[in-house]
């Protein structure tokens, strides 16, 4: 079995120095793709240096900050072209624990999408303010209402996908450019009949750097989900 881990990065050089060795140590059939949006802190250059001696490490350099949505779908398309069996997407800031990956991979033996979930028994969040917790809960409720999703955690990006499922989706139709992409991905997976399973985990706040989520990004996500919901209602997508 070949497994691809995708990491969408912007200014994550300190985190990647520690994270990449941990991922490579998980299992010999695991490879990593870093999708970097021309990080000014040298994230892309670090990966280039490391891949000279590590053939399981790949990097996609993008010309600028083009958005999480297009970065994530670029990772999907790379995985499809290279014929991996499974794709694990996760954040590069240690908010998604490496030790949960084997659980997600195991869950994909029985489903098409294994979702690392903060909002089922056994899961949770650490280090968040009440405001951020409320914002996350409301966005998840919004996604369930408008997109017909049934999972408890639709806004997290820590997941494992079967590549045969991702191949059935036309990613050129994706409209999310920012932080609505996790919800849109589940929406499109659901449309092609994906079987989903949630695996509990604890989300911890990032180790280094600063979060990219702000009010503007959150509002954009809400509006994108509304747009997808209207397209669903009108049978246009």
The total of helices stands at 8
Helix content: 25-40%
- Overall strand count: 9
Question: What structural class do you assign from the helix and strand content?
Answer: alpha/beta
Order of helices and strands: EHEHEHEHEEHEHHEEH
Low-confidence stretches: none
Largest sheet report: 7 strands, mixed
Oligomeric state: single chain
Rg estimate, integer Å: 17 Å
Spatial order of strands in the largest sheet: 3-2-1-4-7-5-8
Overall average residue pLDDT = 92
Distance between the termini: 33 Å
Shape, principal axes of CA atoms = globular
Strand content: 15-25%
Question: What does this molecule look like?
Answer:
The chain is α/β, with parallel strands linked by helices and 237 residues long. 40% of the residues lie in helices and 19% in strands. The protein has eight helices and nine strands. The strands form two sheets. A seven-stranded mixed β-sheet has the order 3-2-1-4-7-5-8, sandwiched between helices. A two-stranded parallel ribbon has the order 6-9. Strand 2 (30-36), helix 2 and strand 3 form a beta-alpha-beta unit. It is globular.
